[in-house]
Structures are given as C-alpha cells and as structure tokens.
C-alpha cells in the first residue's frame, strides 16, 4: 500500500538524504544493527542519508506514540528480532512516525538530531539473530543455465515449474558486508581423476541473491497461506551465497549442497522493509504458455498481480591488480529480481506448507538471480560456462573463478517513474589468500 511515507515530494532535514542517487532517502528508512564508538552495546538504527538514527535513544525522548513507541522499545536488544516479531502493523506505525520526525518542517529536530550517528563511525552487524537459513532456487534462467552444464539434453528438472526448490543452509556462518571470505577446503573429484582429492576449492564462486527476513513467524503445524505471506515478511537485503563449485558437484549426489555452501554467506547490513518496497511491486514473472497449473496453495490472484519486486541488482568485481591500478569495481552483470519464476510469497507459503514454523529473523535466500539476457547472470558458473569462457577485465586480466584478493560487491536499487529511487547499500566480500 502506497502511503504518505512514499510521497515523492517528501524531503528530510538530514540534508545528505536528499542527494541525488542516495541509497537512503526518507522514502527508504531501512533497519540495521550497529556498533557505535559511543556505546558498549550494539544499537538498532535506521539509515537516513549518511546518518543512522538510534531508535531506542529516540524512544527514550518520548517523541513516539502508541504502536510506534512499542515498536521502538522492541529495539532494546542487539538485533532486530524483537521488532521483527511484532508484525506488520507495528512496523508500519514506526515507519510513519520516523518519517514524520525526519521530514522537512518536523518539530523536535534538535532532539531527534541528538539521536543521529554518522554511518562512517559505525561497524554494522548481521541485522538479526538468524535461527534458520534456507536457500531457494527460484530463477528459471539460473536453473536452466546451470542444469545445461550438467545435463545438456535435459537442463530443467521436472519439478521446477511445480514447486520452489530449496535446501537448508547454515545460519552460524552468516556474516555481514565486508567480512573477508576464507577459501574453503574440501573433497573434489577432478575430471578424469580416478580418486577424489582433498584441498582448497579451485572453483570459488559467488551467487547474487536477495535475502528475505521473516517478521512475525507462524505456529508449528499452522502453514502461512500465500494470501497472508506478505504480512510475515519484514524486509529484504542482499545476499551472497558463496559457493565452491567443484565441491558442490561431487558432494551433491543425491542430496543437496552441504559443505560447498556452508563455509560462509554474506548479507548486506540494511534491511529494506517490505513497506518501503511497495511502490516497486510488479506482477510475478510470466510463467509462459506451457506452464503447468499451480497447485492452489501456490496460486493467488493478488500474488500473480503484485508478487514481483522491480529490483535492479549489480555485480562488481575488483582484482588486487585493479586496486593497485586504481581501477574501480568492474560491473560484470546486472540481474533483475523481477525475472524470478517464484515470488517471495510463494517461498514463504511453500516453506510453511508442511506445517514447519518460521521464526522472526529467519532468513530465506531467493537463489541466484539470473535473467534471460546476457549481462544478467548471477554467478560465475553461468557467466563463464563453468570456467570455459573467461571474463575480460579493464586491467587486461581475465577471470574465470575467484582468486585471492578478488573482491565481489553487490549493490541494488529500485526505481520507478513517479517515485524516489531507493537503494540497499553494498554487500561486499574479499577472498583471502
Ligand atoms: Mn544459493
């Protein structure tokens, strides 16, 4: 639902939020958790321009009322779980009052200004205590492209158009933007070798994904219907599902990925709320004329009409040599989230369809976001055809899989005529030697 917080004329008295191309204008107001030099405990903060608003400090000034104050007081812990668990009406009330307090012409500016922390002084944390993390496989283009490498004649497995496929991943190794990625070791069976070997992966890859944080959970045994799924989604962040392709292809027979993925997953620190994304909702991707009918629990008229998100992703890569030459990250791909075959709501409905309970702060990955066109692929395995076609970099280097010192950075923004552009901030990581 579009409301006053999305109004394109709205400006903030925090000047940096009004800068052209700023990721965090007053229409965004994403949540994060940060260590600040002024406090011993991490704080729940809201990004506004180049500043971060300390939500609990604001609550202590008595400027928030009703459900917004309740929501702000739920920010007393060192993660977002308390706020997330309250549910959408509380999140919406807090957003509305934060927007009003940060808007040009608001009263109490001097008091609110004392609750601002410069983002450059903050060390961001993983925004929630993630109890469970599952990762989906919702791009038909990624599924087809990666399937073709293994099964040229039969790339797409028969279940793909019937259910959103997923695997359970590991929450203990979720890290925040900027955390270095150690190259994992594992068992692989090189082509032509008679026996497997153990050692560092030779096929370290990224997967450019969107991460969904659960707000209010569901009781065990009570599935979340697709019609109500949006009420259980707190917001979205960017996610890098680092992957060791040689380990993955050897270990994933017949079960899913295990050690090839669990060594590390990076998330961006700012969670863009579902309400902030409201102006950028679009129809779910066209399933094509030959698609099988959806089973009722995965089919909803409103989800077909509004289940997509117009979210433009960008993947940048910088090698150590490029850094020495002063070259910026080279954009190697621009995937679009609206191309995903399955929607956010379908992932939530499917995961709870057996009665499994989701909890506030649980993380759901979309799976690699890949589009139908060249330049829209979301991982190196697809971009390089599993190492066969190297990417040419502006430094003159060529790249297949990731090497020591390589830095991968995902960024994303939403933009639509008649609304103010919002961004996600970076999700970056550098491969250790
Ligand atoms: Mn993945």
Would you kindly provide a written description of the structure presented here, covering whatever features stand out?
By secondary structure, the protein is an alpha+beta fold. The protein folds into two domains: 121 residues, Fumarylacetoacetase, N-terminal domain (SH3 type barrels), CATH 2.30.30.230; 298 residues, Fumarylacetoacetate hydrolase, domain 2 (Alpha-Beta Complex). 20% of the residues lie in helices and 23% in strands. The protein contains twelve helices and 26 strands. Strands 6, 7, 8, 12, 13, 15, 16 and 21 form an eight-stranded mixed β-sheet that branches. Strand 2 and strand 3 form a beta hairpin. Helix 2 packs across helix 4. The longest helix has 15 residues. It starts with 30 loop residues before the first strand and ends with a strand. The relative contact order is 0.17. The mean pLDDT is 97. Bound molecules: manganese (II) ion.
């Amino acid at each position: 639902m579009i409301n006053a917080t999305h109004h394109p004329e709205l400006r903030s008295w925090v000047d940096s939020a009004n800068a052209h191309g700023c990721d965090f204008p007053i229409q965004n107001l994403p949540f994060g958790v940060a260590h600040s030099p002024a406090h011993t405990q991490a704080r729940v903060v809201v990004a506004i321009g180049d500043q971060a608003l300390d939500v609990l400090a604001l609550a202590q000034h008595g400027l928030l009322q009703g459900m917004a104050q309740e929501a702000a007081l739920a920010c007393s812990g060192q993660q977002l779980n308390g706020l997330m668990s309250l549910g959408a009406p509380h999140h919406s009330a807090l957003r509305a009052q934060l927007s009003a307090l940060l808007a040009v012409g608001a009263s109490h500016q001097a008091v609110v200004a004392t609750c601002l922390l410069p983002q450059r002084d903050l060390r961001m944390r993983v925004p929630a205590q993630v109890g469970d993390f599952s990762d989906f496989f919702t791009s038909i283009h990624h599924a087809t492209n990666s399937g073709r490498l293994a099964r040229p004649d039969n790339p797409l497995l028969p279940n793909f158009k019937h259910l959103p496929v997923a695997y359970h991943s590991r929450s203990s190794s979720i890290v925040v933007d900027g955390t270095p990625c150690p190259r994992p070791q594992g068992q692989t069976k090189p082509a032509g070798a008679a026996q497997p070997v153990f050692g560092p992966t030779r096929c370290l890859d990224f997967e450019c994904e969107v991460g969904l944080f659960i707000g209010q959970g569901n009781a065990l045994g009570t599935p979340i219907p697709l019609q109500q799924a949006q009420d259980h989604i707190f917001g979205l962040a960017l996610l890098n599902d680092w992957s060791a392709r040689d380990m993955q292809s050897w270990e994933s027979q017949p079960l899913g990925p295990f050690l090839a993925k669990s060594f590390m997953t990076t998330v961006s620190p700012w969670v863009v709320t579902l309400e902030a994304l409201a102006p950028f909702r679009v129809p779910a991707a066209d399933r094509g004329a030959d698609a099988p009918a959806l089973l009722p629990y995965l089919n909803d008229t409103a989800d077909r009409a509004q289940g997509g998100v117009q979210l433009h992703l960008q993947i940048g890569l910088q090698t150590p040599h490029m850094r020495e030459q002063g070259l910026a990250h080279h954009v190697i791909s621009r995937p679009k989230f609206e191309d995903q075959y399955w929607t956010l709501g379908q992932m939530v409905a499917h995961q709870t369809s057996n009665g499994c309970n989701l909890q506030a702060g649980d993380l759901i990955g979309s799976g690699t976001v890949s589009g139908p066109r060249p330049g829209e692929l979301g991982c190196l395995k697809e971009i390089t055809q599993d190492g066969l076609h190297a990417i040419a970099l502006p430094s003159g280097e060529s790249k297949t899989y990731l090497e020591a010192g390589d830095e991968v950075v995902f960024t994303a923004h939403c933009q639509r005529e008649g609304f103010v552009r919002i961004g996600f901030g970076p999700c970056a990581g550098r491969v250790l030697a």
